[in-house]
Amino acid sequence: MSSTLAALEAAILADPADRNVRLVYADALDEGSDPAGAARAAFIRAQVALESLPDGDPRRAELVARCDELFAENW
Questions:
Q1: Cα angle 5-23-16, degrees, rounded to a multiple of 5
Q2: Fewest C-beta in 10 Å: which of 8, 19, 33, 49?
């Protein structure tokens, strides 16, 4: 694991609610050559998007389904 990814993981553990750090981590995962990293990045982005939507937003169901799909396929 690169030192960048390790530092970002530490930052996420220190403040899991910081969406910006999680999105930067997703970008860093995409830059790697590991296909699992790309799936993890997509999952993180879907989670962040879901968290930013208000209750009752019609897009929530689609994002929940996407998160469930990514989780089932990759973990």
A1: 80
A2: 33
Q: Residue 19: what residue type? A: R
Is residue 66 a contact partner of residue 47, using CB atoms and an 8 Å limit? no
| Type of residue numbered 47 | Q
Q: Which two tokens stand for residue 43?
A: 């999952």
| Rounded-to-integer distance, Cα 73 and Cα 75, Å | 6
Number of helical (H) and strand (E) elements in the chain, helices listed first = 4, 0
Sole residue written with tokens 């996407």? 66
Q: Is residue 39 a contact partner of residue 74, using CB atoms and an 8 Å limit? A: yes
Single-letter amino acid, residue 41? A
